[in-house]
Amino acid sequence: MTKVLVLTPEVYSYGSMLIAGALEKAGFRVSIMKFTAKADVNLLPQADVYAIGLYSTLHVLEYKDWISRLKSARDKPVIVGGPVTQIPELVLTNMNCVDAVVVGEGEETIVELVNALISKQDLDSVDGIAYNSQGKVVKTKPREPIDMEKRPMPKIPDDIGEQSIRGAHVYVEVSRGCKGSCSFCQVPRLFGREVRSRPINKIVDEVKLFKKKGALRVAISGGTTSFYGCGSSWLDEKEVVKLLKSLSRVLGPKNLSAPDIRVDAATDGILEAIAKYTIGWVFFGVESGSQKILNKMRKGIKVEEIYDAVYRARKLGVKPAGSFIVAYPGETKENFEETVTLVKNLPLMDHFVSIAEPIPGTPLAEEVADMRISENLLFVNDDSKFGRLYGLSVAESRAYQLMIEGYRVRSPLIIGDVHIAKLFLQEAKKQGEDIRKCTMEVKKLYSLLRGRHEA
Ligand code: SF4
């Protein structure tokens, strides 16, 4: 029987468990393993095919040498899938050794691809893949989105209960797609703007399986929980409430979280259900306090809606957190100050600050690819006294300042905590370093794509 080893960096990602589940259902002998760039490829179990899931540009940069060592050591087919394959050239130009990448939703493609590789069939016959052939990237016919009712169950590893992803053992998929069109986000580009939801009974059965394997703390993933079951309408509050109630019955409210909610889809009914059936936190994608930047991000929300949702959440007993993006292209000092003011005024109970990351395939990546390095705030030095002292770029400096402001809102009594300030500084610098690498890769990738297009 053909053996497939599914490899997932650092944690068991939900996508890797789904791919392993699809392969097992098709009759392959499947194992799933976590790895890091330090793992010795010679110690991996033997397999006939290796399938690796990567989900960020950084993963491609961090693991490309490891994957090439794996290929040399085993000389067996190596497949890469995951969100990084949206622009397959990102993987195929960095890793010549990869036999094929799965583009888009992979549950059906992976089964056909493994069969084709094992039987040495022409890869052209497999829809939804890309591969290198005679110095060119060949893309086969895109595959239709899968029917969520028929989506396979994940293969759940025995040690799933030992991992923690932002406090949860696992993020379970309830739907695919998002009605939003935020310019920095991959979700609508990967899964479309139509929301396809899984039936509640299947999600409940899956959560019971996770619980049996020791994954007691479950978070809901998907574009945003509030769109669950919405069909062609903007949202269906009753369906969201029913989902949360059903999952809470299995897990208990202390073990369920429904983190991502858009501020313009946070109805009182949904917020009340979050307070009653989950740990009671929501994470609003606030992003910016500047209406100009929100519009540029195609966020589709007004600053007033942010205030309204956060205050209503507090009133209804929900703990609201917010995520923010700084140094978005075109963000002026004044725009950033508007975000600082928003952070100071909003009663948020946690803050997540990120420097804008150009994810290949998004409108933001296109814009960043076209920008001159000298205009990109990640590469512009902050010439304030503080910026010069720590060698920060403007983007890093803004990320740091916003982290500090958020902390002050939450903990007014311990302003000046040196240890926390140091951690924020390290975090801002690490983000800056990582996103600079991704930016250079995006510029290289888009210049290659455009060159090919023009040629
Ligand atoms: S609402 Fe959330 S998931 Fe949807 S496009 Fe915007 S950031 Fe992405």
Key features of this structure:
globular, 4 iron, 4 sulfur cluster binding, 16 strands, 16% strand, pyruvate-formate lyase- activating enzyme, Rossmann fold, 15 helices, binds iron/sulfur cluster, four-stranded parallel sheet, metal ion binding, 455 residues, alpha/beta
According to CATH, what is the class of the largest domain? Answer: Alpha Beta
Please report the distance between the alpha carbons of the first and last residues. 45 Å
Stated plainly, the CATH topology of the largest domain is called pyruvate-formate lyase- activating enzyme
CATH superfamily of the largest domain: tm_1862 like domain
User: Which ligands does the model contain, each kind named once?
Assistant: iron/sulfur cluster
Q: Unreliable runs, pLDDT <50, ≥5 residues?
A: none
Shape, principal axes of CA atoms: globular
Rg from alpha-carbon coordinates? 22 Å
- Label the structural class: alpha/beta
Domain Radical SAM core: 164-408
InterPro entries: BchE-like, CHP04014_B12-bd/rSAM, Cobalamin-bd, Cobalamin-bd_sf, Elp3/MiaA/NifB-like_rSAM, Methylthiotransferase_CS, Methyltransferase_Class_B, rSAM
Keywords: 4Fe-4S, Iron, Iron-sulfur, Metal-binding, S-adenosyl-L-methionine
GO molecular function: 4 iron, 4 sulfur cluster binding; catalytic activity; cobalamin binding; metal ion binding
Secondary-structure map:
Elements: E1 3-9, H1 14-25, E2 29-35, E3 49-53, H2 57-74, E4 78-81, H3 89-94, E5 100-102, H4 107-118, E6 129-133, E7 136-139, E8 170-173, E9 175-176, H5 187-191, E10 196-197, H6 200-212, E11 218-221, H7 237-251, E12 256-257, E13 260-261, H8 268-277, E14 281-287, H9 291-296, H10 303-315, E15 319-326, H11 333-345, E16 350-355, H12 363-370, H13 385-390, H14 394-410, H15 418-454
Parallel strand pairs: 1-2, 1-3, 3-4, 4-5, 8-11, 11-12, 13-14, 14-15, 15-16
Antiparallel strand pairs: 5-6, 6-7, 9-10
Helix pairs in contact: 1-4, 6-7, 7-8, 11-14, 12-15, 14-15
This protein binds iron/sulfur cluster.
